[in-house]
Write a structure and sequence with these properties.
heterodimer, A: 284 residues, alpha+beta, Thrombin, subunit H, 2 domains, six-stranded antiparallel β-barrel, six-stranded antiparallel beta sheet, B: 169 residues, mainly alpha, Arp2/3 complex 21 kDa subunit ARPC3, 8 helices, globular
Chain lengths: 284, 169
């Protein structure tokens, strides 16, 4: 016991340093959204890897039982097939209701003022002066007079937090009208706030400098046709399957003042549908 | 008591300058100076080393709370002060500096060129840690190096001017 106390007393200075450092690193992981997601994704990925290795090994042990189960299932399915062919099914004609399709995608617009905005951090957020009271909720699109700005990240009664395009969490698939391209992901690398990267566009696509990018109709948040920016530079290397594209943003984030929040009326339904997809993927 | 109050207000002033003045100035995307490091340089080296760490911790934390980056400034300031303590005791003859009437390592004590090298290396360590923790991504290491180098130079100039100003006073 005395030995332990003496050890602690002799090394009190580095020990205090380590304790304070661990406490500050824990704070970083706990309170900073981006750092937290990176940290937990990596640890989760590590555990998933171990799980996968484990299941790869254990999968061999019950191959025999699985074969038998598959044979049984095949038998059952074959029986069902012959039974199915004998029956004469009549398909019910599906009635398409016009009023339903007409009222489908409609947007409501709420204008707001920027209260706080940053462009000098890796992960930038914007605060606007409209909130839940004005009908703003999570995952709504935010656009400026020149183009996209971000997505509502959180909304309180009178104010909302917007996840800026200049944030590593922001991802969007653009649409290029000239070549009808609906591919790739735009994301910010954390350097110049006037430029953003377009990743994962196949190098056989004929992308050229000066082409304009718009939001695509695949997005569940942004309405189609809102400007994102103009292609500033296209690099193609033989070693990569993808173009390296730099885009000049149409919104100047250093001078952002007035924004519009776009509310998709059927957003709740869309989110519910998306959740069922995610649940299915998780179950698999 | 009086001297504690003085240190408290000095820390507060530097924290406010950092958050409400320097962070609001968008000079260029590759220049993000953190001049509050100057506070580390004016802490006397004869202060209790445990107190040193605790002061650095709460100083960093106050900037974090004001700028909404919980933990990032704290961790980088803490490591910097630990490294500075090590450098001070390893590379400088503190007794002779103290006999000359200095209680901090400054330009008069060690000469201009070595002070610039000393200050730049400590500032660079601090900035590098800060940007590393802010970007939190090792694939962006070249960008982090660039940002730390350019910002450190600007911070060094500010630190130099600040030390000149306090000397005049």
């Amino acid at each position: 016991m005395i030995v332990i106390f003496r050890w602690i007393r002799n090394r009190a200075y580095p020990l205090l340093f380590v304790v304070l450092l661990i406490s500050s690193l824990l704070q970083i992981v706990q309170y900073n959204l981006y750092q937290r997601s990176v940290f937990f994704n990596q640890t989760l990925g590590f555990y998933r890897k171990i799980d996968k290795e484990k299941s790869d090994i254990t999968a061999y042990f019950d191959l025999k039982q699985q074969n038998e189960a598959l044979q049984l299932e095949n038998q059952l399915l074959r029986n069902q097939l012959s039974w199915n062919l004998q029956s004469t099914g009549v398909f019910n004609e599906v009635q398409i209701n016009d009023s339903n399709t007409k009222s489908f995608v409609r947007f409501e617009q709420i204008s707001a003022q920027v209260v706080k905005n940053s462009t000098n951090r890796r992960n930038n957020f914007i605060i606007i002066d409209k909130g839940k009271k004005h009908g703003i909720s999570k995952n709504m699109a935010v656009v400026g007079p020149n183009g996209i700005v971000g997505i509502i990240f959180e909304s309180k009664d009178n104010y909302s937090l917007v996840l800026s395009v200049l944030n590593s969490k922001f991802e969007l698939t653009p649409y290029i009208r000239e070549i009808t391209l609906n591919q790739g992901v735009i994301s910010w690398d954390g350097s110049n706030p006037r430029f953003i990267d377009l990743l994962e566009v196949n190098r056989f696509e004929k992308v050229k400098k000066g082409m304009k990018l718009f939001t695509s109709n695949y997005s569940l948040i942004f309405p189609a046709g809102i400007p994102i920016g103009t292609i500033n530079d296209v690099k193609t290397s033989l070693t990569s399957n993808f173009h390296e594209i730099t885009i000049q943003l149409s919104t100047d984030f250093t001078r952002l003042n007035q924004v519009t929040v776009i509310k998709l009326k059927e957003q709740l339904e869309l989110e519910q549908i998306q959740q069922t997809i995610q649940q299915n993927e998780e179950n698999e | 008591m009086n001297s504690w109050l003085k240190w408290f207000f000095t820390a507060l002033v530097w924290a406010l300058i950092q958050v409400y003045l320097v962070d609001q100035l968008n000079i260029a995307w590759w220049i993000k100076p953190l001049p509050y490091v100057y506070f580390i340089f004016i802490l006397p080296f004869d202060i209790n080393k445990f107190g040193n760490l605790v002061i650095a911790y709460f100083f960093g934390l106050s900037i974090d709370i004001l700028s909404g980056t919980i933990g990032i400034h704290t961790a980088s300031t803490l490591v910097t002060i630990f490294v500075k303590h090590f450098i001070d005791h390893r590379f400088f003859n503190l007794d002779s500096i103290q006999l000359q009437g200095n209680n901090t390592i400054n330009e008069q004590a060690i000469g201009r060129m070595s002070y610039i090298g000393y200050a730049f290396s400590i500032i660079f360590i601090h900035h590098f840690l800060f940007f590393l923790l802010d970007y939190f991504n090792l694939t962006q290491l070249p960008l982090i190096f660039l940002l730390s180098a350019t910002s450190s130079i600007i911070t060094l100039i500010i630190v130099f001017l600040a030390s000149k100003l306090t000397r005049i006073q």
